[in-house]
Amino acid sequence: MKIISALLITFLSLSTLNVMAQESQKTAPAAPEMEFVMQLKVTLGEAYSAGPTQHGDRTIIPITGGTFEGPLLKGTILSGGADYQLGNKALNRTELEAIYCIKTDDGVVIHVRNRGIIGSGQDAEGRPSFYFRCAPQFETDSNSKYAWLNNSLFLCAPDFGAGFQGIVLNVWRVK
């Protein structure tokens, strides 16, 4: 009788765990929240090529200036940076790494390293698709009021409808 009771308890426990596991698989975890940080309007110089390298087609696009503005910061984009792109035509894919500095209206310099992917092709249903997302990292004075930029993850996406001669990037902080 004790064996039957133990088996029954074990069976009920396993059944309960199985139901709980199935329920947890049905519910996806909540996505992280995002908050808008800034919009960058970046002016660009004439692109030039280093040609087909051992890693792919290398293109360099000089960053010549621009502006940025958001709820907590505003300023100018300093000239002297560049967007270093590595293209793979066979895969319709470009990796980018833009390195430049921005300067707030109150004089704080912020270093930006923005890595991303541009890709085109077809989605699962065979329709044309385009993907362009980046993950900027910010580095600034740890004693400034912008030090919070040092300790967060960010995502950005282009805004092609802005009617600006250059590139417009919207940036969000992952909360």
Detailed description of the structure:
The chain is mostly beta strands and 175 residues long. Helices cover 14% and strands 55% of the residues. The chain contains 1 helix and 10 strands; from the N terminus they run H-E-E-E-E-E-E-E-E-E-E. It has one helix at 2-26, and strands at residues 34-44, 48-53, 56-69, 74-77, 81-88, 93-104, 109-122, 128-140, 153-158, 167-174. The protein is globular. The relative contact order is 0.16. The mean pLDDT is 89.
Mean pLDDT: 89
From the N-terminal CA to the C-terminal CA, the straight-line distance is 56 Å
C-alpha-based Rg, rounded: 24 Å
Structural class: mainly beta
Helical content (DSSP H or I, runs of 4+)? 10-25%
Enumerate how many helices there are, as a single number. Answer: 1
Principal-axis shape equals globular
SSE series: HEEEEEEEEEE
Unreliable segments of 5+ consecutive residues? none
**Secondary structure tally: strands:** 10
Largest sheet: 10 strands, antiparallel
Q: Give me the oligomer status.
A: single chain
Percent of residues in β-strands: over 45%
Short description:
The protein has about 180 residues and is mainly beta. It has 1 helix and 10 strands. It is globular and about 45 Å long.
Descriptive terms for the model:
14% helix; ten-stranded antiparallel beta sheet; 175 residues; mainly beta
